Amino acid sequence: MPTPNRPELADTRHPSPTGPPGRSGDRNGPPRVLRWAGRLLRRLRPASRAALDRGAAFVELAAVTVLAAAIMVAVYQLELSRTFNNGVRQMVCLVEGPGCGDQTWVDADRPEEPEEYEWGSGNSNALENESLAMNMASAQGWQDTDWECLKNLWGVVSHWDHTLINPNTGDNGITGFNPARHGTMPSGFRESPREQIAWGLAYIDETYESPCDAWAYWEDTGTY
Asked: Could you list the residue range(s) of the whole structural domain that residue 80 is in?
């Protein structure tokens, strides 16, 4: 005889599910929102780790750059930097010689100026000597054109420096007296501008008759 369909007599040990798995009625699995959040966190976690790694690398690079700059500034300010630069300049000049220029010579190794450039003692009184010569030449009758020629001649020879001693040519004083050409130097010649000018006027008058002839000879030969 068949058993009547009575729900209260059903086996309660294996209850039938009331809906498909995964829905809100499924009490054996996590809710859908939690599962979605879990998947999202699993996807974001590697990206976050990479971003942190990149940030750490950037901070490390910045720190190394700042440290290197500080070291460079400190070394530059030390005497070691100046010593290094001087050493480089010395090596350049040893290879290239004096032609490397005055700016590359160090003070300790820069050669002394040749004595031939120091012709006078620095007390020439050039303007006074020129004025004295103009008065003495005028008294001798040499003015205007003659004076201009005399001014050009002695300006080139000595720049009106009565202390001139030129070791290259042997010229002395305002007039450029040269023992090799002009004989024995007159007494007191080297110390006295007046003696030098008087000798020069007499020599030009006797040898060339006028300052312009003496100047023309100088332009051709470089002597007179």
From this structure: 34-104
Mean pLDDT along residues 166-195: 91
Q: Please say which residue of 104, 135, 164 terminates a domain.
A: 104
Q: What is the separation, in whole angstroms, between the first and last Cα of the chain? A: 167
Is the model more confident about 181 or about 86? 181
The residue that leads in pLDDT, 222 or 52, is 222
The verdict on residue 139 lying in a domain is yes
Same-domain status, 62 and 143? no
- Asked whether 129 and 193 are in contact (CB, 8 A), the reply is yes
In this predicted model, which residue has the larger pLDDT, 70 or 128? Answer: 128
Residues 49 and 135 in one domain: no
Q: What are phi and psi of 76, to 5 degrees?
A: -65, -35
| Closest CA relative to residue 223, chosen from 163, 156, 162 | 156
pLDDT for 196-224, tens place per residue? 999 999 999 999 999 999 999 999 998 89
The average pLDDT across 124-139 equals 92
Number of independent structural domains in the chain:
2
CA distance 172 to 178: 6
Which of the listed residues 72, 104, 136 is the one where a domain comes to its end? 104
Identify the bridge partners of residue 165 per DSSP, sorted by sequence position: 172
| Mean pLDDT calculated for residue range 62-87 | 72
In a domain, 14, yes or no: no
In Å, how far are 25, 26, 31, 40, 79 from 35, measured between CA atoms? 15, 13, 7, 9, 69
Dist. CA 63–CA 69, nearest whole Å: 10
Q: How far apart are the C-alpha atoms of 74 and 138, rounded to whole Å? A: 72
